[in-house]
Amino acid sequence: MTLGDIMDGAFRLLKANLRTILLVSAAFVVPVNVVVAFLQRDVLGGQGMLDVLNDPSLVDPAAYPSVGQFIGIGLSVLVSLLVTPFVGGVLTRVVAASYLGEQMPPGRAIRTTARWFWALLLGFFCVHLLELVGLVACLVGALVPMTFFVLTTPAIVVEEIGPIQAMSRSATLVRPRFWQTLGIAVLAGIMASFIGNILGTPFGVAAGLIGLRNGWPLQALGSILPTLITTPFVTIVSTLLYFDARIRHEGLDLQMMAANLDRGARPAL
Asked: Looking at the predicted structure, is the pLDDT value of residue 187 above 80?
């Protein structure tokens, strides 16, 4: 697949599986973001930014988030970090099934992926740790591990292997087309960031102007909407890159054609 094929395929698969993707994402994303926004409602005393700029005395120091609220926010963020790789794994399974001409309901996708939770979590932290090391070593150094290990989650979910083996598998598949994969991954990240800002910024600005005491639901909405779209989009691109690499280097297309002939189905793309 070319760059255009992958981007077009990502939007097509997102559209084709929109209901399942939204249900899976919302089940985990909505509760975490609602709790975080609620616990932040006393920032700046809950006052709106315009009111604070006009009269700084409106800010009540005693109204700042308490220690308990900070702990709650910290726990919510921790839960989000634990949930993120699992959601990515579930979405990968849904998209992979769709790509292969099958349909996987949300419940089945979650149950099937659950037994690989720890592998996905360990792979997630290992990859991001290497990205952090690369970032410290060089400003753009994080792009190297990001590219080599971009196929880790699809490898875990599709091939059902451990995190270290999946990272090695990803690097093997990426190596022959490193620069092309880097370009597509960066472009997908830029597009996701752009879409996320368009969806989330208006709600975040409105919440800040109103004040989080009354505007925290807008703050939550501004975090939820971008995540519901951008996370699946990046996951789909990663999954398509995985299949494309296997087709190029392992003849997966021939295997897929044989399997589809056996069951009388066609691939989604």
From this structure: yes
**Cα separation, 184 vs 170, whole angstroms:** 15
d(CA 88, CA 83): 9
Taken as a whole, the chain contains a residue count of 269
Q: CA-based diameter of the chain, in Å?
A: 74
7 contacts 269 by C-beta, under 8 angstroms = no
Q: Please report the pLDDT score of residue 50 as a whole number.
A: 64
Q: How far is CA 81 from the centre of its chain?
A: 11
* Residue 104 structure tokens: 């996987």
CA distance 222 to 34: 10
How many other C-beta atoms are found inside a 10 Å radius of the C-beta of residue 103?
Answer: 12
Q: For the chain, what percentages of helix, strand and coil (3-state, to nearest 5) are there? A: 85, 0, 15
Residue 171 — pLDDT band, cuts 50, 70, 90?
A: very high
- In the 8-state DSSP scheme, what is residue 61? G
Instruction: Cite the beta strand spans of 39-97 per DSSP E.
Output: none
* pLDDT classification of 173: cutoffs 50, 70, 90: very high
Whole-number Å distance between alpha carbons of 256 and 96:
12
Note the pLDDT tens digit of each residue in 105-138: 888 888 889 888 899 999 989 988 888 887 777 7
Buried b or exposed e, range 118-157, using 16+ CB within 10 angstroms:
ebbbbbbebbbebbeebeeeeeebbbbbbbbbbbbbbbbb
48 in Cβ contact with 209 (< 8 Å): yes
Question: b/e map of 17-33 (b: 16 or more CB within 10 Å)?
Answer: beebbbebbeebbbebb
Q: What is the pTM of this model?
A: 0.81
Give the DSSP H/E element, type plus range, for residue 115.
Answer: none
